[in-house]
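Box 4.2: Ligand-aware structure prediction
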Amino acid sequence: MKAKQSLLSLTLVACAGIALAETTVRNEPIQPIPPYVPTDAVETAKAALGEKLYFDPRLSKSGAISCNTCHNLSMGGTDNLTSSIGDHWQQGPINAPTVLNSGMNLAQFWDGRAKDLQEQAGGPIANPKEMAFTHELAVKMLDSIPQYRDEFKRVYSKDSIDIQMVTDAIAAFEKTLVTPDSRFDLWLRGDDTALNDQELKGYQLFKGSGCIACHNGVAVGGNSFQKMGVVAAYLTDNPALGLEGVTKNEADRFKFKVPTLRNVELTYPYFHDGAAKTLEDAVSIMGKLQLGRQFTPEETADIVAFLKTLTGKQPELKLPTLPPSNNETPRPEPFNTSDSAAKPRNGG
Ligand code: HEC
Ligand code: HEC
């Protein structure tokens, strides 16, 4: 009884602590990232399955490309390339955004053409320039492996696997990929020592000069479509039209989903065409094109110092062990080998 009581008072103290922490969040246009808390056991099981799928290159035609190839979770959820390398070393059309905190986006892709993470996840598997597979073959591959079959059955209580389950599980995993407790978030929660003078000066300039109008909220972006090149046109060879491609409305030309600036230190190069190689370049171009403002090198350095405080705690993952292929599993086709070359030569 006594133990129970002290447990109860402990819980009360803990709750009071949380309540206190919530009330002391500074009143700023950026809010701290809440840690990921699974809603229930099913969600946890989905995320664990989704994690395997995220790392499984057998969801690609070549057997070599997984989601993690282009959204590398060791590198801020990106590939750090101007544009990604897809099937047969094809050049992707646009810079790969990070998957970190992507559940907070109002829609997915630079032009918002997928409404959520589940809808998005079906895209790359069947995209001939990315994983170059088909949904049918992806399901067939998974269905040939008893461990996957059992796990899908356990999680979805259905006898056969379908692509909706695949994308649902991947989306559940992606929702766990949040990065709380950046130094900026510690400061937002009231820790005055979390930022130094330069970083604080950078944040004041970020707010004062107007960056905050587009980069705000929990993800410091991701919540609106805005024109790239408000004050002066952005020059690029990249043919992407932005939101116009989705709405067919000319007024939406060159509007892109405002990228999150969370972990921006890790997600170089920048912009939809990946043309800005450094954070200094990106900040200076933003100042000129979005605000008509030429920052001094010192001002740029201050803003960059602030932006680096947005790097949060990266997801701590244990690399999943994937169930092996068996005799029934379709084999990958990494090269354009002719039939005869692919045939066993030694009577196998
Ligand atoms: C060959 C590289 C490549 C592979 C493989 C790939 N992606 Fe992507 N991903 C991209 C690119 C490029 C974009 C941006 C495309 C666009 O906006 O038009 C993108 C966009 C996204 C987005 C949207 C993020 C945002 O902020 O809009 C998510 C989420 C995502 N990918 C998840 C995945 C998942 C899950 C997989 C595996 C099923 C995957 N990707 C496989 C390159 C890749
Ligand atoms: C009018 C809205 C708007 C304003 C104001 C604005 N931005 Fe942006 N920002 C965007 C959009 C849209 C993009 C994506 C543009 C693209 O890729 O073509 C972007 C991209 C960026 C990027 C690159 C992120 C990435 O992952 O590619 C950085 C860094 C950035 N902004 C910082 C700033 C800073 C610093 C300021 C203030 C000097 C600022 N922005 C002001 C809308 C805005």
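In the box above, the bound molecule is heme C. The chain has a mean pLDDT of 92.
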